[in-house]
Amino acid sequence: MSWVQEHVPELAGCEPVHECVIQLPGHERQIEFEELDLNGAVCGARCQGTGTYGFGSAGQALAAASGLADDDRWIAAVGAALARERTWTGTGRRAMLLVKEASGEMFHATASQNRQSILRHGLDWRRMGTAPGIAGSREPELPAVFLCESREETGFFTGMSRLPADVWAVRVDGRWVENGPDGWMILPEPVPPERLRLVRG
What domains can you pick out in the chain, each with its CATH number? Predict the structure, then answer.
């Protein structure tokens, strides 16, 4: 990579610290993405099918490879997702990353014991109380709200719960969602009560 040799010669020949494939929104094309340093300040990207390359920060590399503007909202959302992921502890990073602007409703399953707190404060992992997570965890698995794309998918979670469970519809218009490390979608921000409705109690 001549760009690396010219701009960051100390990293030339080094193995990437992280590699993943990023799905382009509204396309079947994907971007092969590499972080060459631990902070994600030096990255490389290549768009499959077009062969276009980009180097620099995550945003610069993704913009050049995808043909989108540096200030495109999707570029910013993917950059934020990658930055958050670097701070995760106890879970690995994603080999495939999907970030998309959501619309309509998605669904969240949680212990019925949390209902009053959710009605007052919304969905917020920072307020996790005495009730365990739907999968039995005592602490938030990620700093995010886990979502299902259909109400039917929540049956997987309510079926594993040892406690009575509620299902909430979450209005996600204008929010950016991404795939979690286990495939389920996540929303990396709290959800206020006015965006929620109880659909199964």
Answer: 2-98 (no CATH), 102-200 (3.20.170)
Q: How far is CA 194 from the centre of its chain?
A: 23
pLDDT digits over 67-82, tens only? 999 999 999 999 999 9
First to last CA, the chain: 56
pTM for the whole structure: 0.89
C-alpha 74/C-alpha 41 separation (Å) is 18
DSSP string, the chain: -HHHHHH-GGGTTPPPSEEEEEEPTTSS-EEEEEE-STTS-SEEEEETTT--EEEESHHHHHHHHHT--TT-HHHHHHHHHHHHHHH--SSPPPSEE-EEE--SEEEEEEEGGGHHHHHHH-B-GGG--SSPPTTS-SS-SSSSEEEBSSTGGGHHHHHH-SS-EEEEEEE-TT-EEEE-TTS-EEESS-B-GGGEEEEE-
58, 43 contact by CB (below 8 A): yes
Tell me the mean pLDDT in the region 77-97: 94
pLDDT per position as a tens digit, 145-169: 999 999 999 998 888 887 899 999 9
Query: Exposed, middle or buried by CB within 10 Å (0-12, 13-18, 19+), for 59?
Result: buried
